[in-house]
Design goal:
By secondary structure, this protein is an alpha/beta fold. It has 13 helices and 20 strands. The strands form four sheets. Strands 1-2-3-13-4-14-18-16-17 form a nine-stranded mixed sheet, sandwiched between helices. Strand 11 and strand 12 form a beta hairpin. Helix 2 crosses helix 13 and helix 7 packs across helix 13.
Length: 479
């Protein structure tokens, strides 16, 4: 596939190809929201960002590069422009770390007619039929007890195909069942872990008995082995099924990218790379008048109403804390906050629906984005997206400054519309917000599809937002 990638029509082929390679690597690392945050964290640390503890006092300086995490699945990173003054604006890129999947219930396994089944529950709105007949692993985090009863969490991942949700044979279904294919999410979507009686009926060891009523010894021991801990020290597990097929570059010209979780790890990766690379130029960072921020939230797929979702206080609390720490006297007044938000720009970046060649009638052909056609500006009259004419104009100007293509999207007027974190952030803050995204096929499938060139162009466009917004806003009158 490397030969195909070298022939792909990427911006500045060598740079674009390297970007695509690292993006694929990131996708293969980020199999859960926890693993996505860890992968972003490692890239930030390697770029010189300082990890903060939001439970301790912060010490911030001009030209500083910082980040913190919340519950292991939400990450906020920011840089302070060298020319920032109290009351100047924030340029924030917002994405999310979660994707639809089958999560594993707290009572993790059941014995179903002699088979050991992983007890699943659907997370988000997935295309659940795509999970059938796939080779599945398990990943997430475990809670481990240490000396003196101290508790900690540890990431765990099994890439081996240990589980499967098998289809029912065609001979055992009728025509109506085959036509509808509407599996019952409770009865039909548990995954087979084992049919070996010695594994199904294994008894807990004495040190495992405390959790044996919830965590089956077979799965408990597999998690312990892969995490490098004693099975008796595991207190709980927060796990999900994962596809074992790696992400890959594809298409006859290397123009496509195939992976799970593109919604919304594509956006998360683009935003992290944008803030890292925009901060690498010390001269530009020194001259910058704004605070650049990236917010990658958990729980967007289930409405964002959680302690780590976009509906939480994280966005506003972080801005207030940063502004206060950089202000004389260390206090962010309500006037400072209003001045800051008035001059701020939030880019909510999620994925967008590309025009599907097999379902062209599902699109408004006047606003139907194409794969490898650039980031998509998403507009909805009913405020499912937060875009308005001014934010859209500014975003197009940001594209012009770096010669990036840009596209437009609305749903058909007779169709429903999804939503994003954009309207939530706009409601909480009153800041100027735009909703944009990278076009893709198969949204919410276990295996999604997008354009290789779009990954790179989206990153360039978002980096332009961090670097160039203040200059455009200075020439803009907004009441």
């Amino acid at each position: 596939m490397a030969a195909i990638l070298n022939e792909a029509k990427l911006r500045g082929t060598e740079e674009g190809g390297a970007f695509a390679d690292d993006f694929v690597q990131f996708l293969n690392e980020a199999v859960t929201a926890f693993h996505a945050v860890e992968a972003m964290k490692l890239r930030l640390l390697a770029a010189g960002f300082i990890q903060l503890d939001d439970g301790e006092e912060w010490r911030l300086n001009p030209m500083g590069k910082y980040f913190y995490t919340r519950n292991g699945a939400t990450l906020v990173a920011f840089t302070v422009g060298g020319n920032y003054r109290t009351g100047d604006g924030i340029v924030a890129l917002g994405a999310h770390t979660d994707s639809p999947c089958f999560k594993i219930k707290p009572v993790c396994c059941t014995n179903k007619d002699g088979s050991l089944m992983i007890n699943t529950m659907p997370y988000g709105g997935g295309l659940w039929h795509t999970w059938f007949d796939r080779d599945l692993g398990v990943a997430g985090r475990i809670v481990v007890k240490g000396p003196g009863g101290a508790l900690s969490t540890k990431l765990v991942r099994i890439d081996d195909p240990i589980a499967r949700i098998p289809n029912l044979a065609i001979h055992l279904t009728n025509a109506e069942e085959r036509k509808a294919f509407a599996p019952n999410l409770h009865e039909h979507c548990q995954a087979i872990l084992s049919m070996d009686p010695d594994i199904v009926n294994v008894k807990p060891k004495p040190n495992e008995e405390g959790v044996a009523n919830r965590l089956h010894p077979a799965l408990l021991r597999m998690m312990a082995q892969h995490a490098g801990v004693n099975s008796g020290d595991i207190e709980d597990m927060e796990l999900q099924l994962i596809d074992t097929q790696p992400s890959a570059i594809g298409g006859a010209g290397g123009e496509m990218l195939f992976s799970g979780r593109l919604d919304n790890l594509c956006s998360a990766y683009q935003t992290i790379r944008a803030i890292i690379d925009s901060a690498n130029d010390n001269a530009k960072l020194s001259a910058q008048k704004t605070i650049s921020m990236v917010m990658c939230f958990d729980h967007e797929e289930v409405g964002s109403s959680s302690a780590t979702g976009a509906g939480s206080p994280i966005f506003m609390d972080t801005i207030s804390r940063i502004v206060g720490k950089l202000a004389t006297g260390g206090i962010c007044s309500s006037e400072m906050m209003m001045r800051t938000l008035k001059k701020s720009f939030v880019v909510s970046i999620d994925m967008a629906h590309a025009k599907h060649p097999n379902y062209t009638g599902k699109h408004d052909n006047s606003m139907a984005p194409r794969i490898n056609g650039g980031l998509v500006i998403k507009t909805n009259a009913n405020q499912r997206y937060a875009t308005h004419a001014v934010s859209a104009t500014i975003f197009r100007k940001l594209a012009e400054m770096v010669s990036c293509p840009v596209q437009e999207f609305t749903v058909r007027s007779d169709s429903g519309c999804g939503s994003t974190i954009g309207p939530i952030i706009a409601t909480l803050s009153g800041a100027m917000v735009i909703d944009v995204g990278t076009p893709q096929f198969s949204m919410h499938s276990i295996r999604e599809m997008m354009g290789t060139e779009d990954a790179y162009n989206g990153y360039v466009h978002l980096k332009s937002a961090l670097v160039n917004f203040a200059d455009i806003y200075a020439k803009t009158t907004v009441d």
